[in-house]
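Dear all,

This email documents one entry for the complex benchmark we are building for the journal club exercise. For each entry we list the sequence lines for every component of the assembly. Then comes the predicted three-dimensional structure of the complex as a token string, followed by one or two observations. Please use this as the template for your own entries, and keep the labels exactly as they appear.
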Amino acid sequence: MAKFKVLLIYPNLQMVNLLPTNIAVLAAYLKEHDIDVALFDTTLYRTSNRSVDDIRVEHLQLRPFNLKEKGVGYNTTDIFDDFLKIVDGYKPDLMAVSATDDTFDLGMSLVSRARGRGIPVVVGGVFPTFEPHEAINNENVDFICMGEGEDALVELCRYIQKGKKPTGLKNIWAKIEGEVYQNPIREPIEIETLPYDDFSVFDDKRFFRPMQGKVYRMLPVAIDRGCLFNCSFCAAPVIRHLYRKTGGRQYFRIKSTKRILKELTHYISKYKADYIYFNSETFFSRKEKDIEEFGEEYASKIHLPFWCQTRIETISTRMVRVLKRMGCDRISLGIEHGNEKFRRSFLRKPFTNKEVSTAFEILNNNGMKVTVNNIIGFPDETRELVFDTIRLNRNIKADSINAYFFTPYRGTELRKYCIDKGYLDPAAKTDNLIKSSILRMPQLRPEEIKGLVRTFPLYVKLPESYFDTIKIAERLDEEGDRVFSELSELYFKEYFK
Ligand code: B12
């Protein structure tokens, strides 16, 4: 029998270059099951007027970078023509789209172009996981996958290949002759024994990604999956809840040190990576002893610069010394908000401001470069509350400072709160957490939030004597733009070299 062929579709935001491990793991898993795979990836097409990273440079979050030095630029051909060429050349038996809230529409506009060819379409990822009805009712969709896709996708392929109706597969909802068949979720997969991620499906240009001014050949390495924490603005606690109902394996899983080292060695030799991006929501979620053991092995056998992120509560002198020995280039920490009470009760991040200061003292004393993540424009947030976040950031010494627009992603506890309070139309689509606020709140309007986002690093790093001038730079008018551009120049010259 001819091999079954799947066209994976990754409708990404323009130039969000970090390789996604979900596509790589699905590609590997399908191939392991003797299914043929090709990929259509939209990352290098101009699908909007500016990229996420270009906006982040404007918002003083990233140092300017030049992808062209590594030969990476935009595709000049038409995205839809190219898509149809792949469909007609490869002739897939199934089109498989991976979608988040921000990318579902682009995915649908692609597959709609190929709809007349009788190729079934399955959509997986966080969007259908949280919005299954909207996803399955889309006219371009035949199947959706809620939750993890490895086994569900392989089973779906087998059913289609054998001409059987896939109406009863766990994780898969099927729409057949107008009728929708819903199915329960299966337990999370064992990640220790998965095949290694297959990044060979990606164009070679996709391996390059900027990190604070430099462009590296960067590889994401998934060392665990899931998250143990409960942040109300994040999808993870809701996904955990979804899996708990299965009564099986937990959502948060880790790979062993042995397995991670083998994977690293394989990726570095196969893809020639010169920088590792540890794909883990909390790098220090395993036992300190295990981290030390892994750190020793990494320091002696791998020792490539790397990025990781962790939680404030997990920072200790002992752990930061491990990072130093390993050659860590940069660590990211999410503070999100500077008001302790607001952060604890509303965002469900229960650490104290004292813990934040202590963590930064340890990191600074050990010469670690830190990126700090903040969010502005939470429901009910006031200008005064935003200034609590500015004040906390002024008290710590971070190398780079991110301020994102609060974005009410599907499935999250805070999205529901926004709808209940009348700040958000239930049907509202998220745009992007670096572009604008989609909430409509009387006490903090979208334009004010935008002004605060762009001037946030200025408020944090410049002396207080500049505050009146920075306030002018918040304004989104001609004078505001001029002052903002002058202050930006100063910022890049004196505070963010
Ligand atoms: C690592 C990560 C990234 C990486 C990699 C992205 C990726 N698509 O893998 C980078 C940095 C590139 C990234 C970018 C963005 N991210 Co992100 N990211 C994550 C994070 C922390 C982990 C994701 C991950 O690797 N999980 C492990 C993999 C294996 O799981 P998975 O992605 O869910 O995939 C499994 C299933 O969903 C399913 N599946 C996925 N696709 C498909 C397709 C088919 C056909 C099938 C059958 C199954 C299937 O099978 C997979 C394997 O089991 C999550 C948080 C979370 N807990 O999920 C946020 C998260 C996914 N990101 C989020 C956001 C908002 C973004 C951005 C829009 C941010 C931005 N403005 O730039 C972009 C969108 C880019 C994109 N095209 O996805 C949100 C999405 C919210 C939502 N409801 O849409 C999340 C949930 C975080 C949050 N705020 O709650 N992200």
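Observations: The chain has a mean pLDDT of 96. The CA atoms of residues 265 and 301 lie 9 Å apart.
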